[in-house]
Design goal:
- The chain is of the alpha/beta class and about 600 residues long.
- The chain has 3 domains: about 20-200, 3-Layer(aba) Sandwich (Rossmann fold), CATH 3.40.50.300; about 225-405, Rossmann fold, CATH 3.40.50; about 410-589, Dehydroquinate synthase-like, alpha domain (Up-down Bundle).
- The protein is built from 23 helices and 17 strands.
- The strands form 4 sheets. An 8-stranded mixed beta sheet has the order 1-7-8-15-12-11-9-10, with helices on both faces. Strands 3-4-2-5-6 form a 5-stranded parallel beta sheet.
- A hairpin with a 6-residue loop joins strand 7 (about 225) and strand 8 (about 235-240).
- The relative contact order is 0.09.
């Protein structure tokens, strides 16, 4: 398939940008890496990713690097070659990673137990032990099945034994930071404070102030994905610090326009000050409308609140509604922009992975009805999309995984090569390296190409709903309770169902369906309906919910099914008895 959208990276490389605090800490480290040690479940990867983003350093997960080099999972290495072989490989990989230069490095739970590995870390790095209590560790590791040392009859006793053996050795690390049930960002802040107190005084920049100012003023690298819709064309800009620079981008494209920022209470705490400061610097008049977080805000009542807020601020048709947040905010603010004064301009500033690769692109806006999701809305294209990858550093792991489901979807629709790339590189995508930007840009380009061909979903655009006929029904039946199910998780279950259903109809092989399900499961996404906490609805109830799907035509169900990976198609008039039989089998497993 030929794509008319393209990914256009900025040709001018730029140094990673750091605020003054981060720049000072990096200088005080004197070129040394930060190495995180601790037992499985202590949060090394999650904390490491956020710490690296905060300091403007690269992040590497040693286990992921080992798996990439060996082309096997850790569990497979243990099974085929044993733990001693794995520890030797681990030592060599960690030594190589440290030698490559300054970074934040998360190590496996047993790495620090080897004396020669500890010595290598001590030579060129600062070691930090993330210490967690037994109960905290067990709550975390139960969510994942890739812990070979816990494949025992009594995992809790095994964990207690490992704590007894390893904690005295972990105590040899340079610093100890508690890793409890609170947000990972709190752990990162404790690390920063500890380093500020313990490291030598800041030697200051190694070049003069004029040079430093010139370098720091260089723009960060930006990837541009154009959406070519004639007079309504717009760009998707992907890169870090775009929220801080939103005012400059808006002023350049829409001189003289005012902005109404729509966001939720959680996002307002994290990102609204930066957004408003950037608008102030650009001399842009602005107002704010803050709603409650969650799917419940996609309601008639909140929609009226947002519209009234925009009108009361005396925003005109040529002014802008700015959606600062995830998919809920984008849908809600976009529908308000489509409605107020019969259509205002609209800027998407998505702050979740899911919204950056899906809902912020393509112009679908809307709210929910008590009858189903997104049943009231309009097609209203944004004028600009600013996908700030730095905003993802504060995203909870569950939300990041949920967004990844939509990324995988693009490979499964019509880009098998991208899916193969994801199978090999998903750990680096989760590690927030350049692979993350590539995955976002590829996803946006794929969606843009479909939107260009079929803007209002009269044909091919329905392919973007792979997994959604199942997923939307599951969300409806959980009453959009995010504690039980978030959208990306529903999509993951829906994709798995779509491929199993396709295999059952002999449209694709069971091997390909199993491969898709295995990949989703490997990244930690649910793939079965009964994985939803508290699930009790039967097959007929699910089928009934499906009939509220937007793709139902003249009472007939439409599904996105697959003839293989990258070979999805629109299947109309699927007999309800086939769907019911499939759902009954699914719930019986």
């Amino acid at each position: 398939m030929t794509f008319s959208a393209s990914i256009q990276p900025n040709d001018v490389p730029a140094p990673q940008r750091r605020d003054a605090r981060a720049a000072s800490l990096v200088r005080r480290l004197g070129g040394r890496s930060i190495v995180l040690v601790g037992i499985m479940g202590s949060g090394k990867t999650s904390v490491g990713r956020r710490l690296a983003a905060r300091l403007g350093l690269d992040f590497v997960d040693a286990d992921a690097a080992i798996e990439t080099a060996a082309r096997m999972t850790i569990a497979e290495i243990f099974q085929r070659h044993g733990e001693d072989f794995f520890r030797d490989r681990e030592h060599h990989v960690i030594s190589r990673l440290i030698a490559e230069g300054q970074k934040v490095l998360a190590t496996g739970g047993g790495a620090f137990m080897r004396e020669d590995t500890r010595a290598r870390i001590k030579e060129d790095s600062v070691s930090i032990w993330l210490k967690a209590d037994h109960d905290v560790l067990m709550r975390r590791v139960r969510k994942r099945s890739n812990r070979p040392l816990l494949h025992t009859e009594n995992p809790e006793a095994t964990m207690q034994r490992l704590i007894g053996e390893r904690y005295p050795i972990y105590g040899l690390a340079d610093y100890t930071i508690m890793s409890g049930d609170g947000p990972h960002d709190g752990v990162v802040e404790n690390i920063l404070v500890t380093l500020e107190r313990a490291l030598p005084e800041d030697p200051g920049p190694t070049h003069d102030a004029h040079t430093e100012k010139s370098e720091m003023s260089l723009p960060p690298p930006i990837t541009r994905v154009p959406v070519e819709l004639g007079e309504r064309r717009y760009d998707i800009l992907i890169g870090s610090h775009l929220i801080e620079e939103a005012g400059a981008h808006i002023a350049r494209l829409f001189p003289g326009a005012s902005c109404a920022i729509v966001t939720d209470r959680n996002i307002a705490e994290r990102h609204l000050p930066s957004m408003e400061a950037s608008l102030d610097m650009a001399g842009i008049r602005h107002t704010r409308c803050i709603v409650e977080p969650g799917e419940s805000s996609k309601s008639y009542e909140t929609f009226a609140q947002v519209c009234d807020s925009i009108i009361e601020a005396r925003m005109e048709r040529r002014d802008l509604v700015v959606a600062l947040g995830g998919g809920v905010i984008g849908d809600l603010a976009g529908f308000a922009a489509a409605s107020v004064r019969r259509g205002m301009r609209f800027v998407q500033v998505p702050t979740t992975l899911l919204s950056q690769v899906d809902s912020s692109v393509g112009g679908k806006t809307g709210i929910n009805s008590r009858h189903g999701k997104n049943l009231v809305g309009a097609f209203h294209q944004p004028s600009l999309v600013l996908a700030d990858t730095g905003a993802l550093a504060t995203l909870p792991e569950r939300e990041f995984r949920a967004g990844y489901a939509e990324i995988a979807k693009y490979g499964l629709i019509d880009n098998a090569a991208f899916f193969v790339w994801l199978e090999k590189n998903w750990r680096s995508v989760f590690g927030a390296g350049p692979e993350l930007t590539h995955a976002i840009a590829t996803s946006c380009a794929s969606k843009a190409a479909v939107v260009i061909r079929d803007e209002t979903e009269q044909g091919d655009r329905a392919l973007l709903n792979l997994g959604h006929t199942f997923g939307h029904a599951l969300e409806s039946l959980t009453r959009y309770d995010s504690a039980r199910l978030v959208h990306g998780e529903a999509v993951a279950i829906g994709i798995a169902c779509a491929f199993r259903f396709s295999a059952g109809l002999q449209l694709c092989s069971h091997e390909e369906a199993d491969r898709v399900v295995a990949h989703l499961a490997n990244v930690g996404l649910p793939t079965r309906i009964q994985a939803i906490p508290g699930w009790s609805a039967d097959a007929r109830t699910i089928l009934s919910a499906m009939y509220q799907d937007k793709k139902v035509e003249r009472g007939a169900l439409t599904f996105i099914l697959a003839r293989g990976i990258g070979k999805s198609f629109i299947a109309k008039n699927i007999p309800s008895e086939d769907v019911l039989a499939f759902l009954e089998d699914e719930l019986a497993d």
